[in-house]
Design a protein that fits this description.
heterodimer; A: 252 residues; six-stranded mixed sheet; 10 helices; 10 strands; 35% helix; globular; B: 225 residues; Methane Monooxygenase Hydroxylase, Chain G, domain 1; 83% helix
């Protein structure tokens, strides 16, 4: 394995008195899908949010440890946070298209970043929608309202919106939790394409989904990283009994 | 939810054990019919093979249903995968019994060129290995599985002994060649049976540890009918 894209080093996090992450150390390899899974309240989403500093404004949040992106500490004083969020995109559980057309949703970020060249913007629209496996379904109606799309299409639009900024890392928090199996399959299909180019970190909505898409899988339980394995081995032959109990549905 | 699944897994295992005892009985009957040169009993073994095939397909369907509906993981998944493999081996074991029955029909009422001594010994060994291998699966007993797999060498030794003895008969008196060859097939079927039991032992180890490894590496050989 080459140099990890992200290195999480001894990270602990608490909301007030409530400890939600305990001394997590985890390397996230580049150009692969890393899955963070486990029962609710295990700290997965918090960890995901820490990766692009979304928790900075949480008042009583307290973090110790270090998170490195390409070897640089993203919590170092003076680190460029907006720049970080361009490099590390985030897709949430509920698809929230912006008001406006499909095209406007995708070009919103690049325009905000000052891009005005129409040819270039069109290029970005097509590339992003293709990468999100949505292009074929919307290419003839790019200027129709985004909120007319189905749930699955909206979620893929949100992925495309993140991709428009050409991030290096894509964080996804249960991106298919409200979707039917066909839309889920399409989103998963697009993730499998994206991993060739991006570093993907995802909190899946089920163990089955985790097992389908994981290149690396990390099991979290009550703020602790219980087990971390490459490939799908954690789903067929987990090492820790707690992982075994969780993936076979014996608790959680 | 989990309890219903556990019951289903238990039932799957029970069905597999039932198939195992059908197979053991088929083998015992096939050798018994050979010893007594009982043609009707041999035909019954061959007819019964259909029932064993049906049972195997029924269990396979249950496995697929559980995989589809429960989406099993970890040890549940390994157990079901192991059952799928084991029932395939058991079904092949039953084919060996049917094969012996067919050979008995070919030999017919012709007097044996020698009393059958080592063939019943191989049978005893096969049946004992079968029973204990399935018990090792139920108990998830890796050590027992490894010991039972090692006993395949004893069956191979018996086979070599029969082989040499029958060859000696054939050299001495070419008129024995036809029956000796047929008895050799019988012994070969019994030898292959034990190999299949070794596969079952491998599945016990896999179910418990997730490790996939051949236990007895065989020389490549052609398998006669």
């Amino acid at each position: 394995m080459s140099e990890p894209k992200i290195q999480i080093q001894n990270v602990s996090y608490a909301y007030g008195d409530q400890q939600v992450l305990r001394n997590i150390t985890l390397d996230i390899p580049a150009r692969a899908i890393t899955v963070l899974f486990g029962p609710a309240g295990g700290g997965k989403t918090t960890l995901l949010r820490l990766l692009n500093r979304l928790n900075d404004l949480v008042e009583d949040g307290r973090m110790t440890g270090r998170i490195l992106l390409d070897g640089a500490d993203i919590y170092a004083p003076g680190f460029d946070v907006p720049g970080l969020r361009r490099r590390v995109g985030m897709v949430f559980a509920l698809p929230l298209p912006l008001p406006g057309t499909i095209r406007e949703n995708v070009t919103y970020g690049p325009k905000l970043a000052g891009l005005r060249d129409h040819a270039r913007l069109d290029e970005i629209v097509e590339r992003s929608l293709r990468q999100a496996a949505l292009w074929d379904e919307v290419k003839d109606r790019l200027d129709s309202p985004a909120n007319a799309l189905s749930g699955g299409q909206q979620q893929r639009l949100c992925i495309a919106r993140s991709l428009a900024l050409e991030p290096e890392v894509l964080l996804l928090d249960e991106p298919t939790s409200g979707l039917d199996p066909i839309s889920t399959a399409k989103v998963e299909g697009s993730l499998l394409i994206l991993r060739e180019q991006y570093t993907v970190v995802i909190v899946p909505h089920s163990v089955q989904q985790a097992s389908r898409i994981a290149d690396y899988a990390a099991f979290f339980l009550m703020g602790e990283l219980v087990e971390h394995q490459p490939g799908k081995r954690i789903f067929t032959t987990p090492v820790d009994k707690r992982t075994e109990d969780y993936v076979t549905g014996r608790f959680g | 939810m989990r309890r219903a699944f556990d019951e289903d897994l238990q039932e799957l295992q029970n069905q597999m054990l039932e198939l195992g005892s059908m197979v053991g009985e088929a083998l015992a009957r096939s050798v018994d019919a050979l010893k007594r040169q009982d043609m009707e009993a041999s035909r019954e073994v061959m007819r019964n093979d259909m029932k064993i095939n049906e049972k195997r397909f029924a269990i396979e369907a249950d496995c697929l249903r559980l995989i589809a509906t429960q989406q099993p993981m970890a040890r549940d998944l390994r157990s079901i995968a192991a059952v799928l493999e084991i029932i395939t081996d058991l079904e092949r074991c039953a084919d060996y019994a049917a094969g012996i029955a067919k050979i008995t029909l070919m030999i017919g009422k012709e007097p044996f060129i020698k009393p059958l001594i080592d063939i019943p010994r191989m049978l005893e060994k096969d049946l004992s290995m079968l029973d204990r291998a399935l018990k090792a699966f139920v108990d998830r007993d890796v050590d027992a599985a490894r010991r039972i797999a090692a006993e395949d060498d004893d069956v191979d030794a018996l086979y070599d002994q029969i082989n040499n003895e029958l060859l000696a008969f054939m050299l001495q008196d070419p008129r024995t060649i036809r029956q000796a060859t047929r008895l050799l097939w019988v012994a070969h079927n019994l030898e292959r049976f034990a190999d299949r039991i070794t596969n079952i032992c491998e599945r016990v180890v896999f179910t418990v540890t997730g490790e996939m490894r051949e236990m007895n590496i065989q020389e490549p050989e052609a398998e006669p009918q």
